[in-house]
Amino acid sequence: MITREALRGHVLEELLARLLQDNGYRLLVSAKQDPDALVQGKNGLLVRGRGGNHQADVLGEFDLPVPFSLPLRIFVEAKCNRTSVRLPVVRNAYGTVHDVNEQYSPFSSDPNPVSVRRYHYRYTLFSTSGFSTDAQRYALAHQISLVDLSNPGFAQFRALVEQVADAMYDLATRNQISTFPLGQMRIALRHTLETWTGDDLVTVEEFEFSETIDDLAESQDEPEVMTSSRTTSKRPARKWLPEHELAQIMAGLRAEPLGELLIGFPAAPFILVFKCENPAAFAAYLHVHPSSEIRVHIEFAERGHHDGDWVIVPAHGPQEFRLLFALPDLLADWLLNSEGPAAPRVRDIKRGMLSSLVVFQGNRLIRLLYEPHPDRQRHR
């Protein structure tokens, strides 16, 4: 059966899908939403590439138009390993996004249509155990976004993922299920998290029947017989998580607060995930300050010590809200400790990358404008 760590990764991806949906992205969950670019595969949604189709467990399209750019779509992949994510995972992400960005579609139905790119795809990897140095270096070179969830600020979120995944894993073990029903799990999570944006979400019962037929189709070398209206074979029937107990797990997830996380968009080819220490206080601050621009300080890590969280606070007045975030070590070191001939250029990049961070709160777009501390001008 699937390992606990792999199952946690799948659960994390579904929670991150909700995070995307709450932060300006429209989720793409069915090939019917874009038949030219998407394919419905046996194990989920696929994106057409120049050389093949690519699995997309979580795929989002940015709802707002980006000036002078194609519509932006983002792949999300999550890992809950015991060790840091290694280079092959990042290399695979680059291969995927490069191939789908090479896919061209006919612009019209003319006999000699012009083929054009319709979307620009990006790839973001989330990890609860960090990334190896080689993986970070490769991602930085090829603009693959890495989000490190291993820092203390995300402990509660990691615990939620483990709680839900482990409860389903233990439920499967108690019921002697040898092949974990990932499809049933995804349907249950998407019902609970309200992350299915298509109009054709099947019920668990419908999915169970289609999965059974798929299993039988894979074993054409085994004799088959017809019983009533369904096809059976010598293969043991697939087993499913008991619906009542699965519903109890989902009810516990529904009660958990998911509004502590925000996605931040810097002027850079990566995203940030903020942990809001007090969502109610942040909402109250935004209510009192209706402007779309808020000046903030970023409490940087000290040189050589970026294993803790960074904090965004209001630049003026008391610290009425605190947004925590973290970066992979290599990127943090590049932003903070650049020296030598390239230092002036890198300082300009630092100012550009972190000078304006966009977040969404409800339907409101907010720009967090970085303002250095007067006594910390050396970080500028």
Total DSSP helices: 10
**Per CATH, which architecture of the largest domain?**
3-Layer(aba) Sandwich
Top CATH class of the largest domain? Alpha Beta
CATH domain fold name of the largest domain:
Trna Endonuclease, Chain: A, domain 1
Cα separation of the termini? 51 Å
Cα shape: globular
Query: What order do the strands of the largest sheet run in, or round the barrel if closed?
Result: 13-14-17-16-15-19-18
Give a written overview of the molecule.
This protein is of the alpha+beta class and 380 residues long. It folds into 2 domains: 4-106 and 116-254, 3-Layer(aba) Sandwich (Trna Endonuclease, Chain: A, domain 1); 261-379, no CATH class. 35% of the residues lie in helices and 23% in strands. It is built from 10 helices and 19 strands. The chain has helices spanning 4-21, 87-101, 133-142, 155-174, 182-193, 204-217, 243-254, 279-288, 329-336, 343-355; strands at residues 25-27, 38-41, 44-48, 53-55, 58-62, 72-79, 105-106, 115-116, 120-127, 145-148, 224-227, 230-233, 261-264, 272-276, 293-299, 310-314, 323-325, 356-361, 364-370. The strands form 5 sheets. Strands 13-14-17-16-15-19-18 form a 7-stranded mixed beta sheet. Strands 1-5-6-9-10 form a 5-stranded mixed beta sheet. Strands 2-3-4 form a 3-stranded antiparallel beta sheet, with no helix packed on it. Strand 3 and strand 4 form a beta hairpin. The relative contact order is 0.12.
